[in-house]
Amino acid sequence: MKFSLSPFRLYRLLILLFLIAGARRVTFTIDAVRDMDHEYAAQSFSVRSPWPTVNAVSRAASESGLRPGDRILTVAGHPPDGRGDLAAAFHSLNAGQTAAVTVARGGQTLTLAVKPRIVEFGSNCAPPTNLRQARRNTTT
């Protein structure tokens, strides 16, 4: 017994399979987004050259004692090798936690408990307005 489908029926079957696959993917994506915390911790300051000198701070970092011009020595006990190290140290925190940041300021070494900047899901990781304003002030 030979099984065959007309091209029209094969096309309809293919469309049906794509619709089923698409519906399952959309359902999975909606469930994954629904299960997210809707906020995560992010680095609360920016750095510039000479590496790694603090360029601008958010309100959370400012309240922690971090100031523009501070030179980062360690974050969570480790010297940062690049921007990825700084970001990773803060992304691993929860909203209520702080990161121990050791800085050099005016010939002194200070260890500060820096709060992360909380970024809500869907905000495209945009820095808060005060960071944008701080950047404008340093370039003018």
SSE layout and pairing:
Layout: H1 7-35, E1 39-42, E2 45-48, E3 53-57, H2 59-63, E4 71-75, H3 83-91, E5 99-105, E6 108-114, E7 117-120, H4 129-139
Antiparallel strand pairs: 1-7, 2-3, 4-5, 5-6
Describe the structure.
The chain has about 140 residues and is an alpha+beta fold. It has two domains: about 35 residues; about 100 residues, Roll (Pdz3 Domain). The chain has four helices and seven strands. The strands form three sheets. Strands 4-5-6 form a three-stranded antiparallel β-sheet. Strands 1-7 form a two-stranded antiparallel sheet. The termini are far apart. The relative contact order is 0.17.
In short:
With 140 residues, this protein is of the alpha+beta class. It has helices at residues 7-35, 59-63, 83-91, 129-139; strands at 39-42, 45-48, 53-57, 71-75, 99-105, 108-114, 117-120.
Write down the secondary-structure element order: HEEEHEHEEEH
CATH architecture of the largest domain: Roll
Overall body shape: rod-shaped
CATH fold descriptor of the largest domain: Pdz3 Domain
* Main β-sheet description: 3 strands, antiparallel
Main CATH class of the largest domain: Mainly Beta
The class by helix and strand makeup works out as alpha+beta
The CATH homologous superfamily of the largest domain: PDZ domain
**Widest beta sheet: strand line-up:** 4-5-6
Number of strands: 7
Structural domain tally: 2
Mean pLDDT: 76
Query: What is the radius of gyration?
Result: 24 Å
Helical coverage, percent range: 25-40%
First CA to last CA: what distance? 82 Å
Taken as a percent bin, the fraction of beta residues is 25-35%
Detail the poorly predicted runs. 123-134
Q: Please work out how many helical segments DSSP would assign.
A: 4
